[in-house]
Design brief:
The chain has 304 residues and is α/β, with parallel strands linked by helices. It has a single domain, classed as Rossmann fold (3-Layer(aba) Sandwich), CATH 3.40.50. It contains 8 helices and 8 strands; from the N terminus they run αβαβββαβαβααββαα. Helix 3 packs across helix 4 and helix 6 crosses helix 8. It comes from Enterocloster bolteae (strain ATCC BAA-613 / DSM 15670 / CCUG 46953 / JCM 12243 / WAL 16351) (Clostridium bolteae). This is Creatininase family protein. Belongs to the creatininase superfamily.
Length: 304
């Protein structure tokens, strides 16, 4: 078979899996880098000023910054996401059930592994940790090394760049939008908004906030009223405080941290090495019969 010999980038045409041919993706995973990034977001209303695809666009933009610096490949963003209870029924939001989302993520990783990718980083820009973490551990049982992260909780800006903690379509998300896709943002329509929580905010960890004593993650309970009945503008926070400069700082620092993490993974587990050392297509039913590959000992430790 005749092979492609000219590329726009080193050994590939694009950082995006879908832009390359199958042969290029497979060769890249085998010879250059077998880390694949899966950006995930949602189709969700983001007030009168930001597009419904904001969460997906944010994940894609951060993923691209990471891929260009680290050499990882980016898998196509599925766009739709899973949603907590209070998001359902909100006009402009198209939610997936948890079961659908878990199936979506696991199927994508399995398919990408078939092309030779052995390490996976999920970059989420939407509050769907419930289904993302279930997918990560389901994939772990099957032998797929997967890191699931939400960019704002990974970054933990904790008001270093921002004036306020992140909530929704606010200073944080709008700043990232102004950095990554300003042509889709209508700042003249940006207005502050407020939600009415069922417990005091002192008990809840805001997205990206460093946790303190006695604080619950904001999805550890049904703490919010239904958005469709509670929100007037679709916004929680104040997007008028947003700026491109803040967004640039957030995206750059977040990408640098992800690259640092991936560099450690690449150094410890070179291209072609599955850190878990096995594949278990039987899932839960096959865990008693796991056999490690030749690169790992009988305990799953990588041989030196």
């Amino acid at each position: 078979m005749k092979k492609q010999t000219e590329f726009k980038l080193d050994k590939r045409d694009s950082v995006w899996f879908q832009d390359n041919t199958a042969a290029v993706n497979c060769a890249y995973a085998k010879e250059v880098c077998d880390i694949a990034i899966l950006p995930i977001g949602a189709i969700e209303q983001h007030g009168p000023h930001c597009p419904c695809g904001s969460d997906s666009f944010n994940a894609m933009g951060i993923a691209e910054a990471v891929a260009r610096k680290s050499g990882a490949m980016i898998l196509a963003c599925p766009m739709y996401g899973s949603h907590p209870a209070h998001h359902w029924g909100m006009p402009g939001t198209i939610p997936l059930t948890f079961e659908t989302h878990v199936g979506l993520l696991t199927d994508i990783v399995r398919g990408a592994a078939n092309a030779g990718f052995n390490k996976f980083l999920i970059i989420s820009a939407h509050g769907q940790t419930m289904s993302m973490f279930e997918a990560v551990h389901k994939l772990g049982i099957e032998g797929y090394f997967t890191i699931g992260s939400t960019w704002y909780d990974f970054l933990r800006d904790n008001k270093k760049t921002l004036d306020t903690f992140m909530w929704h379509a606010d200073e944080a998300e709008t700043s990232v939008a102004l950095s990554l896709y300003p042509d889709k943002v209508h700042m003249d329509l940006a207005v502050p908004g407020k939600a009415h929580g069922l417990i005091d905010s002192k008990w809840k960890i805001a997205p990206g906030q460093a946790a303190g004593e006695g604080m619950l993650y904001h999805f550890e309970g049904t703490f919010s009223l239904m958005e469709k009945d509670d929100l007037d503008t679709g916004v929680i926070g104040d997007p008028t405080n947003a700026s491109k400069e803040k967004g640039d700082k957030i995206v750059e620092r977040c990408a640098d941290l992800y690259c640092e993490l991936l560099e450690e993974v690449k150094t410890k587990y070179p291209c072609g090495v599955n850190p878990l050392g096995f594949r278990n297509p039987l899932g839960y039913n096959g865990t008693n019969n796991i056999q490690y590959d030749a690169m790992h000992d009988e305990h799953g430790n990588l041989k030196k």
